[in-house]
Amino acid sequence: MHYVSTRGHAAQQNFSEILLGGLAPDGGLYLPQSYPQVTGAELDAWRKLSYAGLALEVLKKFATDIPAADLQALTAKTYTADVYRNTRKQEDAAQITPLRVLQDKGGRKLILQALSNGPTLAFKDMAMQLLGNLFEYTLDKRHAELNIFGATSGDTGSAAEYAMRGKRGIRVFMLSPHKKMSAFQTAQMFSLQDTNIFNIAVEGVFDDCQDMVKAVSNDLEFKQRQKIGTVNSINWARVVAQVVYYFRGYLSATGNNEQQVSFTVPSGNFGNICAGHIARMMGLPIAQLVVATNENDVLDEFFRTGVYRVRKSAETWHTTSPSMDISKASNFERFIYDLLDGDSARVAALFRKVETAGGFDLSGGPGSDGDEFAKVARFGFVSGKSVHADRLNTIRQVKQDYGITVDTHTADGVKVALEHLQEGVPMIVLETALPAKFNETIREALGRDAERPAGFENIEALPQRFEVMNADVAKMKAYIAAHTGL
Ligand SMILES: *Cc1c(COP(=O)(O)O)cnc(C)c1O
Q1: Which residues line ligand 1 (CB under 6 A)?
Q2: CATH number, domain 94-120+237-446
Q3: pLDDT tens figures, 26-50
């Protein structure tokens, strides 16, 4: 299996070669030359597999340059009941992503697929835990080391730290805005005592952290010498790891391959639902892929109109589903490449236009950049939007009708899923976080605290390990160099 850039860069790479990198050299994103296909016989066989077994089968199709026995060991070590133990019901932990039927009346079935039972209580653990093990394995083979440098406003940073803690050859330097994360999120990250994890609280807002990462990454000499890498959502291995749970959800919700299901995905950077798109391209019988956004509705706008219009910082709202507060969707280029039949010259031109003119228009209207919006339905995509009042209502409604508390992001998903529910096609909503992470809004909706999984009761009281720094790039570089010794 070889990988190509969405913008046409010639050199083809294999899975291990793109594992540690980010963007392709031409600024594009990596995709496989063609999507591997899954036969009915394979799907039948996969029905009986454990989650780790299924992850192995999916990974084998994409990581053809890693020996199957090694992939087997890596997936078996990653997807265990112990790592994914934060289930509502203890006996469900072995399923890794258990389903829960919320509603089943008149052929209209609504199901929740729990993706948030890992160590940081958000779906990012699903991919990041595998990435940590893949990184360690690859670096070990090359006798190499890697220093991950990133910025977080919450979920990504903690998922990365919990995946990389204690791993040989890896250090994590993670910037976060000082005193701006929730107490729970702060405690999750700062209570880690592993010596390869460095938490840096920056005096400023998230954008200041992001700017520091950019400034350091633009110094290519420093970046090379310090072996700096990232783990952001465009990483191809993360996308592949996410493909697995679409297969799991489908196989668990159906009895045979004649049946179809739909998925609703609370979306921000389009990483999660991009994996659903890939599963569908591989032949998984998915009827609809429903993109659910919050007030930051860049993606909803595209899937309603064909116009992709990125937002400025001043138009990017801080909402109560903060992990979906994005101004542009960094994985969206992968879908546009498929929508344009792999025409990389046009993809490159459109995404150059995003930089220069703030977006593009595929509606086919006067002055538009193309008419491919007409083809979007063929890929199963539809969309919807949910705002703060919807979230509160949905959290209350789900609690009242089904007796469980969903987090704010999942509530956005449930709200939009109900608008697209079709008779005879089960709708699976991906649960992207547990409510304990966003307790402030749960209190607002329900008037009481969200339940916390065992072991998290007193997390805020644990000793914290972090460094406060002002937004000073030179100081940051000196700090990294001092701790890597490179
Ligand atoms: C990251 C995140 C999302 C958005 O996922 P994308 O892959 O960026 O679309 C949604 N919900 C939660 C809880 C998240 O952490």
Answers
A1: 122, 124, 155, 233, 266-272, 323-324, 409, 432-433
A2: 3.40.50.1100
A3: 989 999 999 999 999 999 999 999 9
